[in-house]
Write a structure and sequence with these properties.
Length: 167
Amino acid sequence: MRALVKYTSITNASDGKFFLASSHRAREEAILKTGIPYSFLRNNWYVENEIGGIQGAIAGAPWVTSAGTGKVGWVLRQDLAEAAANVLIGHGHENTIYELSGKPMIQVELVAALGDVLGEEILVQQVDDATYTDIMRGAGMPEAYLPMLVNTQKGIRDGGLEIQSND
């Protein structure tokens, strides 16, 4: 039995502009250079990354975003774990790339679905990056995390997590 490197990457790592793509692209390229069979699992944004916003909405706060109309293919970690397990135990996954994503949607659509689950309307507050930073700081987000949060919003706004895939 031959080895298979399974690497968990990010959506559109090979040519994406999302701020996390370049480091994943470098890792994918390093794996390719080894000549070892590989399978790249390019995960879109985890729904679980939105827990803070979801908890805020449950408590009655608005959903704050500077992502504009950028789309994300949110996906549950559990679904990604199942996909990874299938690659690890299955056959025929040598030298493959899977773009693992949910249906791309804008923040307003995600929040509407959340509102349906909660049985109430949730206000979406679209702001610029500076205001977003101030709001996150005011909510107690550690200063060290603020650049990552803003880069995520910018990356979404710029289409970095918008990918259509049936993988």
